[in-house]
Specification:
The complex is a heterodimer of chains A (221) and B (236). Chain A has one domain (27-215). Chain A contains eleven helices and two strands. Chain A has helices at 2-13, 20-27, 43-48, 53-77, 86-108, 110-116, 118-121, 127-135, 142-172, 180-183, 198-216, and strands at residues 174-175, 178-179. In chain A, helix 2 runs parallel beside helix 9 and helix 5 crosses helix 6. The longest helix of chain A has 31 residues, at 142-172. With 236 residues, chain B is α+β, with helices and mostly antiparallel strands. Chain B has a six-stranded antiparallel beta sheet, sandwiched between helices. A two-stranded antiparallel ribbon of chain B has the order 7-8. Chain B has a two-stranded parallel sheet with strand order 9-10. In chain B, helix 1 crosses helix 2. The radius of gyration of chain B is 22 Å and the shape is globular. The chains are: A mainly alpha (221), B alpha+beta (236). The A-B interface holds A 48-49, 51-52, 55, 80-85, 88-89, 92-93, 96, 99-100, 103-104, 106-108, 110-111, 114-119, 193, 196-197 and B 1-3, 7-8, 11-12, 15-16, 19, 22-23, 26-27, 30, 33-34, 37-38, 40-41, 150, 152-153, 156-158, 160, 163, 191, 205-206.
Chain lengths: 221, 236
């Protein structure tokens, strides 16, 4: 009898795996607190890799993996990390993870690794990763940190995929390499060279931010 | 929380050892797979210059390479160098030697009908880093059968387009000789150029400097292979 009471108490005390607060950790960065459009972080890679959807897709996965695992590792060590060298500790963890991702891509996805070339190693300098470690993982439990990493990763992913979609469509006339305009019978559809250059990414990104802020009513303080 | 200096130094040292160990472990563990990937990629590029292999399995690619490719090495005077394995020649390392001393590999491809074509590896400088390629010529030693190119660090979406079929296909059918003069093939500036000659291909907008590198590479290496082509392919 006493045992059952105890377990009931434990259950009551533990927060459900997908409580409202935890759901908010994941969904917030998708829109209301998006790392790219609201926090304006990670812009450089959003410009660089988004000329085509395929490398963008791999980049999105790579960044999400790095954010989730560095968040998890830092969160596990958060009480051990000396405060005075915490930034360099975070950097070392990120750099190690990025190098691992790079090595694995080179070994098993050589074509993709060639396409992304230097941008994989540049994940190290992606401010989103470090921003999440400093702002969240240093002060929260591992599971919450993983959720936060997933949220930020997906928030980053959907924006760069959206940018890449428009850039590849209007810049190269294709989606994932599939020639769309030829397929619908418009082989002469004029392509916009501006979309292939980083300028095109700024414009698409600007339009996305405009639409999003008009919709959510977000105003910078 | 303020930790002692000893703790901080100890933490940093321990972390360095753990992370460094992890990285070297991964590097050693993945080395074989990476080497294989690079080797397969080189063979894919060599074969990609003459035939479409995009739907072949890795095993099949190695088989085609072993049965239908015959490699040998020449010098810039067109003389064969004996005792050197063509697929072991590092074109990038040869690139740094004086032209007269360079070993120039040639891969002769025989298709299933018995027609021969010649694949010539080349190397050069792109905008940011090295570029290289394999130019395949028909048995007349003049008409381009195909080209495959690759690079270390050209800009994705701009210069890196030299790896795409869409750009490489522009070379197919072009000629490198005009009469007996070697004129090479020039990639133009800008995209959608009209009325291209036999020695011109359309450019890549936003990547003119990479295109210049490609042009230089073709011109240089064709001049090195010229003696071999005249001696052994055109008149041989």
């Amino acid at each position: 009898m006493a045992e059952t009471v105890e377990t009931a108490e434990v259950k009551k005390a533990a927060e459900p795996l997908f409580s409202k607060r935890r759901k908010k950790i994941v969904t917030d960065p998708l829109n209301d607190d998006n790392p790219i459009t609201i926090q304006v972080l990670g812009i450089c890679s959003a410009l660089a890799v988004t000329t085509q959807l395929e490398p963008t897709f791999v980049m999105a996965i790579a960044v999400t993996v790095v954010i989730v695992f560095s968040n998890l590792i830092i969160s596990l060590m958060r009480n051990l990390i000396p405060g005075r060298i915490r930034i360099i500790v975070q950097l070392a963890v990120i750099a190690t993870l990025v190098s691992l991702v790079d090595q694995v891509l080179k070994a098993y996805f050589f074509d993709v690794s060639k396409m992304l070339s230097v941008f994989v190693s540049l994940i190290i300098t992606n401010c989103i990763v470090m921003g999440r470690l400093e702002a969240f993982a240093m002060g929260n439990k591992p599971y919450d940190s993983v959720l936060d990493g997933l949220g930020s990763g997906f928030g980053y992913a959907w924006i760069i995929l959206a940018v890449a979609f428009f850039r590849e469509l209007f810049g190269s006339g294709s989606i994932f390499g599939f020639k769309v305009f030829e397929a619908i019978g418009l082989p002469d559809f004029p392509l916009n060279g501006l979309m292939v250059s980083p300028v095109g990414a700024f414009m698409v990104l600007g339009l996305i931010i405009w639409v999003q802020r008009a919709y959510t009513g977000y105003v910078e303080k | 929380m303020q930790q002692s200096n000893g703790y901080i130094v100890g933490f940093a040292a321990a972390m360095t050892i753990v992370l460094g160990g992890l990285l070297s472990f991964a590097a050693v563990g993945l080395k074989d797979a990476q080497k294989k990937a690079v080797e397969l990629d080189t063979r894919k590029q060599i074969l990609g210059a003459v035939t479409d292999i995009s739907s072949e399995t890795p095993d099949r690619i190695l088989e085609i390479f072993n049965t239908q490719i015959e490699g040998f090495v020449v010098n810039s005077k067109g003389e064969k160098i004996d005792g050197v394995d063509a697929s072991k020649v590092d074109v990038g390392r040869e690139f740094k030697k004086p032209v007269e001393e360079r070993q120039l590999p040639v891969f002769k491809y025989t298709d299933t009908n018995g027609a021969a074509s010649y694949i010539l590896p080349m190397y050069g400088n792109g905008l940011w880093n090295n570029i290289w390629g394999f130019l395949a010529l028909e048995s007349d030693g003049n008409t381009v059968k195909g080209i495959s190119m690759d690079h270390v660090g050209e800009t994705p979406g701009l210069g890196a387009r030299i790896t795409s079929d869409e750009v490489q296909d522009r070379y197919t059918g072009k000629k490198i000789f005009e009469g007996t003069n070697l004129v090479s093939i020039q990639m133009l500036k800008g995209e959608n150029n009209a009325s291209l000659s036999n020695h011109q291909v359309d450019g890549m907008s936003g990547a003119t400097l990479t295109a210049d590198g490609v042009n230089d590479m073709l011109e240089n290496y064709l001049s090195y292979y010229k003696a071999f082509l005249e001696k052994s392919v055109i008149n041989g």
